[in-house]
Amino acid sequence: MTDPVPRLPTLLEAVLSVGTDLELRATLQHIVDGAAELTGARYAALGVVDPGHDGLVEIRTVGQAETEAGTEVEAGAGNSRGVVGRSDEFVGVPIRVNDEMFGTLYVADKRAGAFTDEDEQLLRVLATQAGIAIGNARLYETARQRERWIEGAAAVTTALLTGETAADALMTVAERARILAGASAGVILQPTAEGGMEIVTASTLDDPGDIVGTTIAPGSPVLEQLLGGEPVFVEDSATDPRMTTHVRTRFGPSMMLPLQADGRLIGTLALPRRRGDRPYTSVERLLATQFASQAALALVLADAQHSRERLAVYEDRDRIARDLHDLVVQRLFATGMMLESTQRRSMGDGAAQDVHAMLGRAVDELQSTIQEVRTAIFALQQPPADAPTTFRGKVLRETAGAAAVLGFQPSARFTGAVESRIPDPVAGQLLASLRRALAAASRRAGVSVIEVTVDSTATLPDGRAGVRLTVHDDGGTDDGGTGTTVTWQSPL
Question: Which of 22, 385, 442, 480 has the least CB density, counted as fewest CB within 10 Å?
Fold first, then answer.
């Protein structure tokens, strides 16, 4: 029997090195290195009982076994079924963390002689210290993960409350979650009218390709859990029978977490990893579930804030529209009435023909101004940030789009009940003609004014009732020209 005392400094050094690092993988490497050095083994390995607990998928080894016995030990370690104990060829001792079996530490192929009882005793001392170090590393890693997820949730909340659109908000949640989870993709699914769920947003390391738009059809085994707001954890998306989408084959471990707040299911956050990647640990599952809950609440708050802002803008626009209508239009109309009366009185006086003509022009200008103000009132009454659904709104959208190119706003005037008189097919043709006319005007030099007129009371040359679009610009007037007028008309 050899005396273990001469190896005491080596033991102390190995024990101390085990606790020098709080990162779990580095701690395990220190354990394996210390075991090999302490026993003079050419080969050391650590077989983990539950790789998924800590996200470990590989055995920590040092050196290579050169004997048949060593090869057998490696196979046993890899399957976490190696024999605990000692033979001349190898020694295996258990490592426990808080009375929980963590794994088995093996050494094999001693450089000089066979393994002794003292070798086994030294390894057991090292294994005891290793259990303490692994427990500390686990606590440290859990604290770091929790800190990252909390910071990520705070960042998402801040981003969502700064006024992002709904699509951008979902992408923010998906991308941040993907980064925090170390996933291959961050995916948002939302319920469909047919009772299924559809991927509406995807953040991936590569091109999302055909991921967005993928639908989980009604009747899918996993759908009931998702629509019920329950988390779903999948070990391998490609082989799990609950997964039915065509994109499942490219993914492995996955978490599908409900985005739910105040009983309202916004959707599901899915975080799949690539095939062959390590499974999610219990800590990662818990933290991701908490993140999803906080993100769902932030989405609801952001939507409520956006709705309040929209309502405030709409109310302010409505007030401006009322003020314009009640004050400006009434005054303009009264002024026009007075001018028309004056014009009629001056018609019998031959000396007042010039005044009569000037009054006529003034009346025309007032009528034009009234039309412009009414158009402005209509535009103010449109819900902000929404695509227009009325014909007037669509015409105004086209002129607003042209303004971005022209540098000024074209005027728009409507005559007659354009909403009720112009059918949808004619309206579509008119809008296409308007778009072409505005584009042509934007390419002409010297254009500073564009007037758009839609008259739904027009009479066509053949006598039929129709609608007439007129787009006039002042291009070329500086050279004595009269500008350009484009006219389009159609029967109603």
Answer: 480
